[in-house]
Write a structure and sequence with these properties.
Blueprint: H1 3-38, H2 47-51, E1 62-63, E2 66-69, E3 71-78, E4 89-96, E5 102-108, E6 111-117, E7 123-130, E8 139-144, E9 147-152, E10 159-163, E11 174-175, E12 184-186, E13 194-198, E14 203-207, E15 219-223, E16 235-236, E17 244-249, E18 261-266, E19 271-275, E20 283-288, E21 296-301, E22 309-314, H3 317-320, E23 329-336, E24 344-354, E25 359-363, E26 366-370, E27 376-380, E28 394-399, E29 417-421, E30 428-433, E31 437-443
Parallel strand pairs: 7-11
Antiparallel strand pairs: 1-2, 2-28, 3-31, 4-5, 5-6, 6-7, 8-9, 9-10, 10-12, 13-14, 14-15, 15-16, 17-18, 18-19, 19-20, 21-22, 22-23, 23-24, 25-26, 26-27, 27-28, 29-30, 30-31
Length: 445
């Protein structure tokens, strides 16, 4: 047998194993959420009780029923109040208008709700955009230049493109029409798992599309320079299925890539780095596994200016008790990416809490982590350049939106918070909870 055939077989085996792991992960979640529904987790909290909690400062480690540290609760809206009939949440992102008004797009299983955060931090429900086809636990969205780009694991969903400027003149909550109120409905793909936005280049990358398609679930490129007429210039599929990614115009120390469009892909069992400057011929730079890998989920650069390190979260290492995550404490892996062709795992950080990690975003030396049952965890990572082992990382604040497991010190399961948006100029933070709703928070540290 030729060597190339052996390589091809090895690649096929890796692809099959990765798909099996994703199937297992989704099955674990569906079983857990089915159990939660049977127990009434999505409707046992009446709105009056939840609304009575906020606004509430964090005092002596509590904001109402929620454990906290240096994070105040300013406002809350349940999924019921935001028009969801399934009452289940997922992703979240934000947008700031040209006049400084701050809005959130709140993912739910049956659509996307829109809220505004006023100057006091109060959340106001403005309306919702229903799912394009059917409900799904997985919905992901990002915003470029005021347009929300929304994908879902729902079959045939494609990419909804919605102009959030429609929210500016509303005087009462509105349910938008999935036909007439969309700027466009892009159908170049059906289902997707995540939506990645590269704002500088007006590019959307839909990831986790069908594995049996030509793109193999890789970086499905959508040029949204004209949101009304999105087009796909290509796909990066060399390493197959991409679960999530961050794409940037590179400004780091690896001089051969200065000014290039680089995507840092979280590919189920590796960190995979791709040069996507040439959309017709993207080039894979490196593919890096790491010790303790169970399901490579998401991550973020520690700085958009020097681009020398990134953080990576693995969604199944706590569940599977692999490597250092065997103790169940949320584990974040640190990678030195000074040389894009040879990233190295230099260390890790472990949260004080037992929980599964999900999504994290970095702002001004802090990573804002949405870690399922332990909620929002804010970690100071400013020491990473001086000590890339992670020993200098320190939790500086938190807000736990799942008090049910506080008495036992946390449980490793798929409840609580899904994602966080920390980029508003006001400092207000949006956190979306699976079983409760959206929280407006403020870090006071």
């Amino acid at each position: 047998m030729k060597f190339t055939s052996l390589v091809a077989l090895a690649g096929l085996a890796t692809t099959i194993n990765a798909q099996a792991e994703m199937d297992r992960l989704m099955d674990l979640k569906i079983k857990h959420w089915t159990k939660m529904r049977a127990e009434g987790a999505f409707n046992k909290y009446d709105n009056a009780r939840l609304q009575a909690v906020g606004p509430t400062p964090c005092v002596n480690g509590k904001a109402g029923e929620y454990a906290c540290d240096k994070v105040d609760l300013l406002s809350f809206l349940s999924h019921q109040e935001m028009g969801s009939t399934t009452k289940e949440g997922n992703d979240i992102w934000g947008w700031t208008s040209s006049t400084g008004r701050e809005f959130g797009a709140v993912g739910q299983t049956d659509g996307t709700a829109f809220v505004e955060i006023d100057k006091t931090g109060k959340l106001n429900y403005l309306g919702r955009l229903p799912t394009q086809t059917q409900s799904s636990p997985w919905r992901d969205l990002k915003v470029i230049n005021g347009y929300a780009y929304i994908g879902s694991e729902a079959p045939g969903h494609g990419l909804q493109i919605f102009d959030m400027r429609k929210l500016l003149t509303l005087t009462a909550p509105k349910t938008f029409n999935i036909g007439t109120d969309l700027t466009a409905w892009y159908q170049g793909f059906g289902s997707s798992h995540n939506i990645v936005a590269h704002e500088e280049k007006n590019m959307i990358y839909a990831v986790g599309t069908a594995r049996n398609s030509a793109c193999k679930g890789g970086l499905f490129m959508v040029d949204v320079s004209n949101p009304a007429k999105p087009v796909s210039p290509g796909c990066a599929s060399q390493d197959g299925y991409v679960h999530d990614a961050q794409c940037v115009v590179y400004n780091g120390p690896d001089v051969q890539y200065l000014g290039k469009e680089i995507c840092f892909n979280y590919n189920e069992d590796t960190l995979t780095i791709v040069d996507v400057t040439n959309k017709k011929s993207p080039r894979q730079i490196s593919r890096t596994p790491y010790s303790g890998s169970s399901y490579t989920h998401q991550g973020w650069l520690t700085s958009n200016t020097d681009m020398t390190f990134l953080l990576l979260d693995d969604e199944l290492d706590e569940e599977d008790k692999t490597g250092v995550a065997a103790n169940g404490r949320t584990t974040t892996y640190i990678f030195n990416i000074t040389t894009l062709a040879r990233p190295t795992n230099t260390g890790y950080y472990q949260s004080p809490a037992k929980s599964i990690d999900h999504n994290q975003y970095v702002k001004d030396g802090l990573t804002y982590q949405s870690n399922y049952n332990s909620g929002l965890r804010i970690v100071d990572i400013s020491s990473v350049e001086a000590d890339p082992t992670g020993k200098g990382f320190k939790q500086v604040g938190f807000f736990d939106v799942h008090p049910e497991d506080d008495s036992v010190g946390g449980i490793v399961e798929f409840s609580g918070s899904w994602s966080v948006y920390p980029y508003f100029k006001s400092g207000y933070i949006l956190l979306n909870s699976i079983e409760r709703g959206v929280f407006a928070l403020k870090y006071t540290g």
